[in-house]
Amino acid sequence: MKSLPVLLLLAGLSAPALAQQLPVIRANATTVSIKDGRNFSKNVWTIEPATKPDIYITSAKKVVFYTDVDSISIQVKQDKPQDFYILLNGKDSALTRVQYQLPRLEMLKKAKKYNYADKREVPAFTYQSADDEVLKNIRREFKLDSIAGNGNEISQMINLMHWVHDIIRHDGNSNNPKLKNAVDIIAVCNKENRGVNCRMMATVLNECYLAMGFKSRFLTCMPKELKFDDCHVINMVYSTDKQKWLWMDPTFNAYVMNEKGELLGPGEVREKLISGQPLILNPDANWNRKNSSTKEQYLETYMAKNLYRLETPVASVYNAETGKWPAYVQLVPLDALNQESTKADSMMKNGYRYQVTNNPDLFWVKP
User: Fold this and answer.
1) Average pLDDT, stretch 152-160?
2) What start and end residues bound the annotated signal peptide (predicted)?
3) Do 186 and 168 touch, CB atoms closer than 8 A?
């Protein structure tokens, strides 16, 4: 416990806080490394004195914060947040709170119920024809026939996914290009030696699939909360051979299989995560060819968070989100926070509109 003179250095500290004498650690740099349970992340947290409290959410039993000069170990309590101060450069105090949250996989399991009898009207999904000149140009310009190869349908889909992963670097903090289509996204990445976020990578792969005659959509995978800092976008591509949708993720070079080695679609992956059935991640799944992905980290943690609500455009076309938001459909479980479609006034305000369904049969309908 720090002495009273040290605590008095903390700007704006109230009498009740003084009485509690919260722990204090020092920092000269604004970034903090965190060990969350067994997982260590370097420089993952930014000290923000203006945010009071700055809340760190965890499902672990213990969390350790490491500044450049100090550290603190917090025993996480499910029924009580744990507060402490970070004293930045000896003058700015950052009230920091460690707060427990149910593990994301457990949250997903509680969201298993859909309503197959939901008859709210959902527009028919459409897919741009590969005979469209703009898609024929993509096929020629990127030599997609050569990239896809001469193998079966699924091998071609995987080869195209690998190619997008290899030629585009993922950067979740990058600004979206003004023109959001495969040709311009790839050109900007090459010209500016930059990466793009997962949505742009999925946009490129989606247009390549359409150009090759594969029916596909990009799929925004979101957590339960309506306001969030992170979600993920992958692709769903329809296999006519298997008569099902398949999961393809160009950001992590990932597809998912069952114990028989059969490829699965997003709906199947979600169901198997909830029921605890076996899932296999392809062994070469990785992020930017730097960090390998594991089933536990990618599926059971990251995607378990992001498979709560799912959203996809009604029309799967070239240049779908350049200068506009098209119409979307959201599939949500019965305990989701949003059960209604966007209102007309909000649509007119920002152009973003979506229709909600609890019926997975309408969302995963075959093309």
Assistant:
1) 98
2) 1-19
3) yes
pLDDT above 70 coverage of the chain, percent: 92
Pick the residue with more confidence: 290 or 349? 290
Q: What are the structural domain ranges in the chain?
A: 4-101, 106-363
pTM score of the predicted model: 0.84
pLDDT in tens, 268-286: 999 999 999 999 999 999 9
What is the predicted pLDDT for the residue at 351? Answer: 72
Q: What is the pLDDT of residues 198-215, one digit of tens each?
A: 999 999 999 999 999 999
